[in-house]
Amino acid sequence: ESYLLSVPADSSHVATVKAKTVYGALRGLETFSQLVKFDFDANRYTISGAPIAIDDAPRFPHRGLMIDSARHYLSLPAIREIIDTLPYGKMNVLHWHMTDTESFPLQVKSSPKLWVGAYSGAERYTQQDVASIIEYAKLRGIRVIVEFDMPGHAQSWCKGYPEICPSPTCTTPLNVANNATFDLIENLIREITGGKPSSPSQPRGLFPDDFMHLGGDEVDTSCWGKTPDVAAWLKAKGMSEDDGYAYFVKRVAQMVIDQGHRPVQWSEVFDHFKGKLPKETIIHVWKDFTNVTEVLALGYNVLRNVGYDNISWYLDNIDKPWDALYQNEPCAGIQSDELCKLVLGGHGEMWGETVDGSDLQQTVWPRLAAIAEKLWSPRASTQDGAAALPRIRAFRCLLLQRGVAAAPVDNKNARSAPSGPASCYAQLGSFDQIFV
Questions:
Q1: Strand 3-7 with 52-56, pairing
Q2: Among candidate residues 395, 347, 368, the one with its CA nearest the CA of residue 144
Q3: E strands along 48-173, which residues?
């Protein structure tokens, strides 16, 4: 995604973008678009400060936004609209949290009753719908990674296939003692991955990306101990409930690995089982107490976005302003630059309990821009929130010009409306700024 942008002083010459890949060219063109302003008095487009030479590259290769269509269904137009916004901040990943306790909206041909767990017959995604979103994102330089949270957060699976859950009154975690559970999951994974590695010239499966997110968080195994069949199975195997949890997450991760992809699992999985996980596993850290240095020292890659604290990248924390998010350093506490290289990047996580198509954009933006700059720009350039303030204010105005419903920068609560009449640019010293 690196690029070289050159804008000559002489308007008779052309600006150029040079890049090794089409994705670098896209990032360079985005920067160029943010340099160009329309002068209404002169009735022409202008670029201030030429000549300009920019040699740019991302700090982290993985820079994403998570959307949650399990807590509230998101329409295809709403998803396309949020994808449109991601290149503006040079983000390159859409993490699609597809299923959870509340709903299972996706068509799965190998297990056609899974989407009985959708909120309604109208709030579903066909495989053709998904393919259209993936192609739409690809043309904008955005990868799409799907998440099926398991074995916890999976009550919606039971509506179509009650046999994969422990009992009608104790539905989660998924039934570790029943081979039908793993048969269903393996067939689901095969639909997602195509059963083999993908390549740019030969994408396979419904979600061709190399990563598949398997969740694994917030698993209360007490249901297994309360269910006689499951408890007897654990006893026969000489397993505790926690051993059953390990067996489940490792077995499912190995399915993904065997099909040529890399599993992503939330940090509880590492916190429980440490270095016993396959090394292909990517640890998605959201807990403050997870020892990230330990994770990296054991050779695992990390995605980092600490969850519910004062500098959280969880965007559902609407009381956390942009400058708090800007203090969240992905390599904080990591003891060497070499270990930091194993951090792939991170996400802004837009958990959907209080978000649907009516307020998605203004809950995400402009705070996601603070995360975007932390993930793209060099660490030394992102230490000063006061210096970033005019950039994020200018960027918010750019988003409004492009039709994005970005909330005011200085809101006490993220998605509140403006407090009164004013120009967006009145809060700026200058609007000749590029945010990232």
A1: antiparallel
A2: 347
A3: 52-56, 62-68, 93-99, 143-148
Single out the residue of 342, 427, 332 nearest to residue 383, CA to CA: 332
Q: Which of 347, 349, 345 is nearest to 379 (CA)?
A: 345
**Dist. CA 433–CA 35, nearest whole Å:** 8
How confident is residue 210, by pLDDT bands cut at 50, 70 and 90? very high
Q: Which residues are catalytic?
A: 218
Within 10 angstroms of residue 129's Cβ, the number of other Cβ atoms is 16
* Other CB atoms within 10 A of residue 329 CB: 14
Q: SS3 for 373?
A: helix
Rounded to whole angstroms, how far apart are CA atoms 419 and 436? 27
| pLDDT bucket at 431, cuts 50 / 70 / 90 | very low
How many CB atoms are closer than 10 A to CB 2?
15
Helices (H), 317-419: 322-326, 337-340, 360-364, 367-376, 385-401
**What is the C-alpha separation between 164 and 155, in angstroms, rounded?**
10
Task: Yes or no: say if 317 and 363 are a contact pair by the CB < 8 Å rule.
Answer: no
- Which helix (H) or strand (E) segment is 426 a member of? none
Q: With contact defined as beta carbons under 8 Å apart, do 303 and 344 qualify? A: yes
pTM exceeding 0.90? yes
Terminal CA-to-CA distance of the chain, rounded, Å? 13
